[in-house]
Amino acid sequence: MRQLVLLALVGLGAQLVDGSLGMAYGVTSTTLLLAIGTNPAAASATVHLAEIGTTLVSGLAHWRFGNVDWKVVAKIGVPGAVGAFAGATFLSSLSTDAAAPVMSILLLALGVYILARFTTFGLPKHNLGKPLRKRFLAPLGLVAGFVDSTGGGGWGPVGTPAILASGRLEPRKTIGSIDTSEFLIAVAASAGFLVGLGSAGIDFTWVFALLIGGVIAAPIAAWLVRHLPPRILGSAVGGVIILTNVRTLLKSDWIDAGDGLRYAVYGVVLVVWAAAITHSVRAYLADRREERAAAETEAATAS
Q1: pLDDT recorded at residue 123
Q2: Which residues of the chain have pLDDT under 50?
Q3: Can you say where in the cell this protein is located (predicted)?
Q4: How high is the pLDDT of residue 303?
């Protein structure tokens, strides 16, 4: 019973982060399942089965709060489902751990770019409102879906930074669209795992526990992303991407850093991240004051 309560709390926390930042549900939940001895394919299958429910509720909540661009959902979600199904059947017989460091380097570069861009300049405006093209979203969805099912998570970490970096969709709609389209990825990946594994190794009680926690958190996260300022949200997302991928790289066979070095690097990342968010909050408040002052001046002039 204690284990099920813990799983429910993990599902709640993971969905709260995922629904408000567009990533980390799969990574968080899969990490816990692997830590207690679940094999990678069964762990990913368990998480994706739970995500069918959590992503459905999350998508509905994001739609309710106006956080979804349905054209983006369609353009990225369908190719993503194809990639997820292929990745799930592939993982049933082969590990893709060797590709993790390469992917982490790419994601780390995007994370640094996003953190610097949003912290320094705020919401990108020069491309905002321009449509995201299918020739960009379709390959992105295919790769993100494959990575998600083979790695137990990755739809958000791959899709969210790439769309944010384009500057064509505001952060809350990027996160809402990624979370909503993830329902298609969860269904396709689950189908692929059931084809490749059957139900062997999948504990449906664990699936239910993760699902309950995630369903509770989904509407709360959708509300948060609706009300958090884009500048602050962009800085927060950038920090998550950096911290997640620095951890992957330091623990990879390429570097295999000791505990002391890893924790020192984590500390530096956290300090920089906190400073970036603090700067974003101050800049946002300053912008709000300027906007109010300009509005008051305009009103006084008009009267």
Answers
A1: 57
A2: 96
A3: Cell membrane; Membrane
A4: 65
Helices (H), 228-258: 230-251
Number of domains the chain contains: 1
Quick one: CA dihedral 8, 10, 16, 19, positive or negative? negative
pTM exceeds 0.70, yes or no: no
Report the pLDDT value the prediction gives residue 85, as an integer from 0 to 100. Answer: 92
Give the pLDDT score at 31.
65
SS (H, E, C) the chain: CHHHHHHHHHHHHHHHHHHHHCCCHHHHHHHHHHHCCCCHHHHHHHHHHHHHHHHHHHHHHHHHCCCCCHHHHHHHHHHHHHHHHHHHHHHCCCCCHHHHHHHHHHHHHHHHHHHHHHHHHCCCCCCCCCCCCHHHHHHHHHHHHHHHHHHCCCHHHHHHHHHHHHCCCCHHHHHHHHHHHHHHHHHHHHHHHHHHHCCCCCCHHHHHHHHHHHHHHHHHHHHHHHHCCHHHHHHHHHHHHHHHHHHHHHHCCCCCCCHHHHHHHHHHHHHHHHHHHHHHHHHHHHHHHHHHHHHHHHHHHHC
Reading the block at residue 49, the tokens are: 């089965």
For 81, the token pair is: 């489902």
Quote the domain boundaries for residue 127.
2-302
Structure tokens at 264: 């020192």
Query: Is residue 246 within 8 Å of 257, Cβ to Cβ?
Result: no
